[in-house]
Amino acid sequence: MTEPVITDSSPIPAPVNRVPTPTSPAPDILRCAYMEIVVTDLAASREFYVDVLGLVVTEEDATTIYLRSFEEFIHHNLVLRQGPVAAVAAFSYRVRTPEDLDRAVAFYTELGCRVERNTAGYTKGIGDSVRVEDPLGFPYEFFHDVEHVERLAWAYHLQTPGCLVRLDHFNQVTPDVPRAVAYMEDLGFRVTEDIQDEAGTTYAAWMRRKPTVHDTAMTGGDGPRMHHVAFATHEKHNIIAICDKLGALRKSDTIERGPGRHGVSNAFYLYLRDPDGHRVEIYTQDYYTGDPDNPVVTWDVHDNQRRDWWGNPVVPSWYTDASLVLDLDGQPQPLVTRTDDSEMEVTVGADGFSYTRKEDGDFKLGHTL
After folding, report:
1. In this prediction, what percent of the chain has a pLDDT beyond 90?
2. Sign of the CA dihedral running 74, 85, 89, 254
3. Does the pLDDT value for residue 123 go beyond 70?
4. Between the CA atoms of 60, 64, 65 and 68, what dihedral angle is there, to the nearest 10 degrees?
5. How many CB atoms are located within 10 Å of the residue 347 CB?
6. What sections of 169-314 are H helices per DSSP?
């Protein structure tokens, strides 16, 4: 088995069809801050995110619910908006200064992207904001001004055993991962980990602004789509508590994958599907990446421990299913087909079981059943 390779800089091959690098400076992004998703049944989604997962309602009305995690002090980390088609309306990032919004406008205008600005903000609690349809087809938002709300980190009487404490990251599905990585590097992101094969095909890359493993990841597949949004807990026992709660409520069918530990990121994880099929990861215990010489970890696509450190198989839906994303008019973006090799096809058979060791040929965990 090929062990992960450690390098001092991004090992991802240069893209063939690179997004041009703007001469305008990129906005200084602090972190992923919130996601706005469209749901088809607001009451069912409220039950899932509030009653089951325990996110805090900051504000709500007949069509929209604003939710936050327990350590958050800005207005929200997740917006649920009633609509006809389940999809993602915005991947939203906070920037360092108000002037960074001007930089965002200039950066994306130079790229020829559609750019809109709303000085009053697109959602409650968020001020002057810029939304764009980025070169990969994703709806990105940048903002600085926010309404502060009570941080509930000390409200232990309100916290459940599975308490969600912060928004950790997004995960995006895109057909050309090297192209996505080069564009995100121009935007100031840096690669922390990636998955490749011996031919140099890149299957996924993890990229960060805050000093953790990622603020977003680029996963190879038909896109643009949203693979998942992730919330962090303090400890892995919080994730186990969520599993126990789902079992007690007879909602274990919302568990798609896990619990387990990733090889990539080293984090403990659980993947759930909300009533519309939007994927939510519960995530904890990755590692610090904030030094400027933080090394990059490259995993072999045939290493069965890359996705699950214990070698458990990845269910096929985890590779095939993802949420649509919307353009700035609220219409679903058309999908572009991935032409590079599929991670699922090279590591998962038709029976859904992963190959464990490339050198062992056809051996899979399923053979033990």
Report:
1. 88
2. positive
3. yes
4. -120
5. 25
6. 177-186, 236-248
d(CA 185, CA 14): 12
Encoding tokens for residue 184? 């995100």
Residues in the chain: 369
What's the pLDDT tens digit per position in 20-76?
999 999 999 999 999 999 999 999 999 999 999 999 999 999 999 999 999 999 999
Q: Work out whether strand 225-232 and strand 279-284 pair parallel, antiparallel, or are unpaired.
A: parallel
CB 167: neighbour CB atoms within 10 A? Answer: 27
Phi, psi of 241 (to 5 degrees): -65, -40
Residue 356 has pLDDT above 80, yes or no: no
Are 193 and 297 spatial neighbours (Cβ–Cβ below 8 Å)?
A: yes
Q: How, if at all, do strands 202-208 and 216-220 pair?
A: antiparallel
Asked if residues 85 and 38 have their Cβ atoms less than 8 Å apart, the reply is yes
What pLDDT is attached to residue 108?
98
What's the pLDDT band for 348 if we cut at 50, 70, 90? confident
Rounded to whole angstroms, the Cα distance separating 166 from 146 reads 17
- Chain CA centroid to CA 173, Å: 9
* DSSP code per residue over 184-223: HHHTT-EEEEEEE-TT--EEEEEEESSSSS-SEEEEESSB
Kindly state the tokens that stand for 60: 């709500």
Nearest alpha-carbon partner for 207 in 221, 197, 196, 219 = 219
Tokens for 298, please give them: 């490259």
